[in-house]
Design goal:
Structural class: alpha/beta
Distance between the termini: 86 Å
Strand order of the largest sheet: 1-4-3-5-2-6
Radius of gyration: 21 Å
CATH architecture of the domain at 46-197: 3-Layer(aba) Sandwich
Strand content: 5-15%
CATH class of the domain at 46-197: Alpha Beta
Number of helices: 8
Largest sheet: 6 strands, mixed
Number of strands: 6
CATH superfamily of the domain at 46-197: Peptidoglycan recognition protein-like
Amino acid sequence: MKWFIVLCAALCIGCASPAPHLEKPPTITREQWGSTPQPIPDSRRHTPQFITIHHAGVDWKPGRDPALFVKNMQTWGQNEKHWPDLPYHFMIAPDGRIFEARPIQYEPESNTKYDLQGHIGVELMGNFENQRPSEAQLKSTVALVAWLCQDLKIDPSQIAGHKDRARGQTSCPGKDFYRYLEDGEFVAWVRQTLAGKQPDVKSGAALPGGPTIVIDRPAPATSPASRS
């Protein structure tokens, strides 16, 4: 009987279920939002190795059109920074919609100084020094980053915030998003997704002294007495 148990154990080595295949989350394509990129030289091609999370750093006003925001950022970058295309590869709206930006075969752009080769830039619209990301944004970011890790063969340990890449130069992606990177919760959500589980992606409580208004909700009206 002992030899039978040993044989069964040997046969089961390597028979663990393979990791599930993740489908690419729904995205708004460049063609759909009206991208007008300029040519990017072949010298900017790269092999993706890292995923870097950003915020726009601009307060989001409810009612703003995310597609127009993406288009305006592309135009601004081309006119003011002489960037041929958007600086990021994906941009995520407050309602969770994911917009394709720069093609992933090209390195990103940055206002800060660090080696851009190998980085995939994922930007969330909003300013998370002053606002809180929506749960829709958090869930879409987890789904997108997990898919990128799978598709590009990037280990989740290579996920970080912009401030981690450009130390001392920026607070991006803002304290109310960075908290999820700092405590490891975001990477845990990604690992759970890669393992075929459904992580319980929820916003944490407001940070002490941090922002309280969620990006997709209007600020509470102030009473006449409070304005006096």
